[in-house]
TrEMBL record:
UniProt KW keywords: Hydrolase, Metal-binding, Zinc
Molecular-function GO terms, alphabetical: cytidine deaminase activity
Protein name: Cytidine deaminase
Species for this entry: Falsiroseomonas oleicola
Requisite cofactors: Zn(2+)
Function noted in UniProt: This enzyme scavenges exogenous and endogenous cytidine and 2'-deoxycytidine for UMP synthesis.
Length: 134
């Protein structure tokens, strides 16, 4: 996996963000199992609560074109801020990363690369095993 290229794709996607309320633009790039990269950006809404994070936009778009297995996701936000996916996005990503191996690429506040597995970011995740035990 080319981590710098995936982060560059997330940064490029960030330019498409619709964030007139928070002005906090975020881009995501999801590396699919077939090698394709699905970009996403945050899409805010005047109701605030209907806002979509970049990670969920990328995931939904990838699923809509038949992708269901993912290797990594890069997330890029404003410079100087350590950004990691919100709790809701962690849960949504875990739906398609049941083993928790999905690699999340982020940047620390100083801009240096940081990475963690989804399992580390969302330990003891709720999933289909709890919903349908046995
Ligand atoms: O990982 C994150 C964190 C926040 N946001 C968006 C949601 C909202 O539009 C703005 C401020 O929270 O940033 C994302 O897209 N991804």
């Amino acid at each position: 996996m080319d981590a710098p290229a995936l982060m560059a794709a997330a940064e490029a996607a960030r330019a498409m963000a619709h964030a007139p309320y928070s002005r906090f633009t975020v881009g995501a790039a999801l590396l699919c199992a077939d090698g394709s990269i699905q970009p996403g950006c945050n899409v805010e809404n005047a109701s605030y609560g209907a806002t979509l994070c970049a990670e969920r936009v990328a995931l939904g778009a990838a699923v809509a074109r038949g992708q269901r297995r993912f290797t990594a996701i890069a997330v890029a936000g404003p410079a100087g801020i350590a950004l990691s996916p919100c709790g809701l996005c962690r849960q949504v990503l875990s739906e398609f990363a049941p083993d928790g191996h999905l690699l999340v690429l982020m940047r620390a506040a100083d801009g240096s690369p940081r990475q963690a597995t989804l399992a580390a970011l969302l330990p003891d995740a709720f999933g289909p095993d709890q919903l349908h035990p046995g």
